[in-house]
Specification:
6-stranded mixed β-sheet, Rossmann fold, DUF1023, 6 strands, alpha/beta, globular, AB_hydrolase_fold
């Protein structure tokens, strides 16, 4: 499925991830595979991403991946890179509308909020005051061996600056 290269590219679009192999970020001979995030706890999604990347690297023969994450995907990639030894497998990480400071997308409280969090554990972890965001801030979202690009616009209304 994949051609051989020294680096693969993982492309995440909102809650889906696709891998493109050799040469990265070009339209010629790029191939894609997908990885979906369904609102599971971020650490669970990060473990699933780790297994997915291992499969992509094994199938492609690449040594590293480039990651493009959006929204929740930026936190899943950051957790994998920082806490699950993903840094050794990543060359570049590009984040669109990154949630480094969390999001208060879920409004309200009480039973309504609790019901939303029960269906979407990641939603509670994305809250600005969550233990997850605190842990990420304490450790730092970036690893020195990975090149980062963060893209955020004034129209990204659910990201906190």
């Amino acid at each position: 499925m994949f051609s051989s290269s020294s680096r693969a590219a993982i492309r995440r679009v909102h809650s889906a991830v696709a891998a493109s192999i050799s040469p990265p970020f070009t339209t010629t001979s790029a191939r894609f595979a997908s990885f979906l995030i369904h609102g599971d706890a971020i650490d669970r999604s990060a473990h699933q991403l780790s297994a997915f990347v291992d499969e992509v690297l094994a199938e492609s023969g690449a040594e590293k991946v480039d990651v493009l994450g959006h929204s929740l995907g930026t936190l899943v990639a950051a957790y994998w890179i920082r806490f699950l030894e993903g840094a050794a497998k990543v060359d570049r990480n590009v984040s669109l509308a990154p949630l480094w400071h969390g999001t208060d997308l879920i409004k309200g409280g009480g039973l309504v909020r609790d019901a939303q969090y029960a269906v979407c554990p990641a939603c509670s972890e994305m809250h600005p005051d969550s233990d997850f965001i605190d842990r990420l801030h304490t450790a730092g979202p970036f690893v020195d061996s990975v090149a980062y690009t963060n893209i955020l616009t004034e129209r990204d209304t659910h990201t906190r600056r």
